[in-house]
């Protein structure tokens, strides 16, 4: 009716490239004692130790942890990083 030869119902479904769906970097929110302080970006294949080091190296985290002892760093892969301070 709109001047086209075939119907849209008979056209092939659009294809996609699965390689384009893979993320190179992952963004992690960083919480200190349960409060969001910053967000960091690390490579998707980074291990827990690399994610923890990147979180502790951030300037906002350094400022918030200054003079306090880091009791524990919890890394939830693909979700978040939580830094627990004592004192």
Largest sheet: 4 strands, mixed
Into which percent range does the helicity of residues fall? Answer: 10-25%
Q: Globular, elongated, flat, extended or rod-shaped: what is the shape?
A: rod-shaped
Rg computed from alpha carbons, rounded to a whole number of angstroms: 22 Å
Q: Output the CATH topology.
A: Ubiquitin-like (UB roll)
Sequence stretches where pLDDT stays below 50 over 5 or more residues: none
CATH class value: Alpha Beta
Integer tally of domains? 1
Assigned CATH architecture: Roll
Mean pLDDT: 91
How far is the N terminus from the C terminus? 75 Å
Structural class: alpha+beta
The overall strand count is 4
Strand content: 35-45%
Which strand order spans the largest sheet, edge to edge or round the barrel?
2-1-4-3
Distinct helical segment count: 2
- What is the string of SSEs from the N terminus onward? EEHHEE
Account of the protein in words:
- The chain has 87 residues and is of the alpha+beta class.
- It has one domain: Roll (Ubiquitin-like (UB roll)).
- 20% of the residues lie in helices and 37% in strands.
- It contains two helices and four strands; from the N terminus they run ββααββ.
- It has helices at 48-57, 59-65, and strands at 25-32, 35-43, 69-76, 80-86.
- A four-stranded mixed sheet has the order 2-1-4-3, with helices on one face.
- A hairpin with a 2-residue loop joins β1 (25-32) and β2 (35-43).
- The longest helix has 10 residues, at 48-57.
- The model has no long low-confidence stretch (mean pLDDT 91).
């Amino acid at each position: 009716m709109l001047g086209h030869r075939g119907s849209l119902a008979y056209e092939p479904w659009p294809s996609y490239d699965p390689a384009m769906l893979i993320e190179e970097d992952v963004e992690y929110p960083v919480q200190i004692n349960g409060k969001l302080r910053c967000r960091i970006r690390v490579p998707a294949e980074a291990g827990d130790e690399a994610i923890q080091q990147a979180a502790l190296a951030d300037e906002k985290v350094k400022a918030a942890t200054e003079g306090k002892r880091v009791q524990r760093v919890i890394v939830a892969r693909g979700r978040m990083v939580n830094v627990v301070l004592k004192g």
